[in-house]
Amino acid sequence: MSDGFADLDAMIARVRELPELGRKAAPEIAEALEQEIEKTIAAGTDSLGNPWQAREDGGRPLATAAKALVVVPVGTRIVARLTGHIARHHLGRAKGGIYRPILPTSGLPPAFARRTRAILVDHFNAIVRGAK
Question: What is the domain range of residue 60?
Fold first, then answer.
């Protein structure tokens, strides 16, 4: 029979893990956000689902943009970056000044927020229940 102290000690240990929740979840969140950004690239839309301006020749704009995408966790933050000429298109600095936004520039889009929240909730529940 337990006197309750062992259970209390285990609960305290789990609560002490909570400050590390963001750092532990960050790699999984980075992967999920990379998938979300790749989906918008494949759809030819910005992060809110607004379509990019079509190409003059009718081809798919920025068809290789996913190759220029890098998403990594840095501590508790997620850094998404575009490289090469794709970054210029994202900023509207490419030939013709056409702006085709790839990364969110203001706030977290709803689809990204849902994925992030689901991962954080899973990690929180795992810590509280003692599974992680």
Answer: 24-121
